[in-house]
């Protein structure tokens, strides 16, 4: 697997303020990478530099092996970007807008109409292709904005808060769209404050704070490093008090509470300890049919960025 983006020792700032402080990471072909962090942590600045909208103070950024700062046109040729909250022409239709974008990308006139139809189908907006965008909801407009970024068949999408301001239905629709695009092979680099969606969508997550990467890894690995603290063990029958006492006596278990679904366990340990716990419960003849973590990426995020 080769990389579509490589960021090395990247530093950038504004009037003496260091927005990004010597960060290094890469995005592989077909990978879905999320960037999260508090406001002012450097997320948007990072994406602006990758998109050629801002120059770094130091470091290198290559897309498809080409330096963005030296040759932005070629570097961004196979990249689609949505930075900030782009506006659409209210009296234009999706077909008008995408035809215009296609001409910018020098798509042959004979192929342009079919390309527009293909992209509108990807974002589930075919039936709206000839409607004025002034009648669209914010979620529909966001689909057209993403459609613009797909017109050049990008190997990678760079998206800055694509669900910002959307209602839960709109957020879910965009998340499903991004999941489908990634499943089809498009690498995605996404910044977001919606940590639950990031956890569900992304192969890898970068947590930024004060311009530095303070944690990095797959969501499941970040949770295991943080410690799997709260687990719900689902059981066929409601556990007895004797069962609870036995569970509390197991290694690394700090508490065990009876619930309507089974047993809520606090475990001071890792993924391996969780596996050992499951084996011990089965050996004790407790009728377990499932186990899940009650901790989340939000817990990891807060611990990584709360400061001393």
Give the helix level as a range of percent.
Answer: 25-40%
CATH fourth-tier homologous superfamily of the largest domain: P-loop containing nucleotide triphosphate hydrolases
Query: What does the radius of gyration come to?
Result: 23 Å
Order of helices and strands: EEEHEEHEHHHEHEHEEHEHEEHEH
Provide the low-confidence segments as ranges: none
Largest sheet: 6 strands, mixed
Derived from helix and strand composition plus strand pairing, the structural class reads alpha/beta
Question: Within the largest sheet, what's the order of strands?
Answer: 6-7-8-3-9-10
Q: What is the total number of structural domains? A: 2
- What CATH architecture label of the largest domain applies? 3-Layer(aba) Sandwich
The total count of strands amounts to: 14
Name the CATH class of the largest domain.
Answer: Alpha Beta
Work out the strand percent.
25-35%
- Give the N-terminus to C-terminus distance in angstroms: 39 Å
Instruction: Give the overall shape.
Output: globular
Q: Can you tell me the CATH topology of the largest domain?
A: Rossmann fold
Count of individual helical segments: 11
**Integer average pLDDT:** 92
Domain ABC transporter: 5-235
InterPro entries: AAA+_ATPase, ABC_transporter-like_ATP-bd, ABC_transporter-like_CS, P-loop_NTPase
Pfam families: ABC_tran
Protein name: ABC-type multidrug transport system, ATPase component
């Amino acid at each position: 697997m080769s990389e579509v983006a490589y960021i090395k020792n990247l530093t950038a700032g504004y009037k003496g303020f260091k927005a990004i402080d010597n960060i290094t990471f890469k995005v592989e072909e077909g990978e879905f990478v999320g960037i999260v962090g508090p406001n002012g942590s450097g997320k948007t600045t990072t994406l602006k530099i990758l998109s050629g909208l801002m120059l770094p103070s130091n470091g290198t950024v290559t897309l498809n092996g080409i330096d963005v700062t030296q040759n932005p046109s070629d570097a961004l040729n196979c990249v689609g970007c949505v930075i900030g909250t782009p506006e659409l022409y209210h009296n234009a239709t999706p077909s008008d807008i995408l035809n215009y974008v296609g001409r910018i990308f020098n798509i042959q006139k004979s192929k342009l109409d079919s390309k527009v139809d293909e992209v509108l189908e990807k974002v589930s907006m075919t039936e709206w292709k000839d409607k004025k965008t002034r009648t669209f909801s914010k979620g529909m407009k966001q689909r057209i904005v993403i459609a613009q970024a797909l017109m050049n068949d990008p190997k990678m999408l760079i998206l800055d808060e694509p669900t910002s301001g959307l209602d839960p239905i709109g957020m879910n629709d965009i998340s499903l769209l991004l999941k489908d695009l990634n499943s089809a092979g498009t690498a995605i680099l996404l910044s977001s404050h919606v940590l639950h969606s990031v956890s569900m969508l992304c192969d890898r997550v970068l947590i930024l704070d004060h311009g530095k990467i303070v944690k990095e890894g797959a969501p499941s690995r970040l949770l295991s490093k943080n410690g799997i603290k709260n687990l719900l063990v689902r059981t066929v029958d409601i556990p007895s008090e004797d069962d609870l006492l036995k569970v509390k006596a197991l290694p690394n278990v700090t508490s065990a509470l009876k619930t309507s679904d089974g047993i809520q366990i606090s475990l001071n340990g890792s993924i391996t300890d969780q596996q050992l716990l499951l084996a011990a419960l089965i050996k004790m003849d407790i009728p377990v049919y499932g186990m899940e973590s009650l901790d989340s990426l939000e817990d990891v995020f807060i611990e990584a960025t709360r400061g001393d």
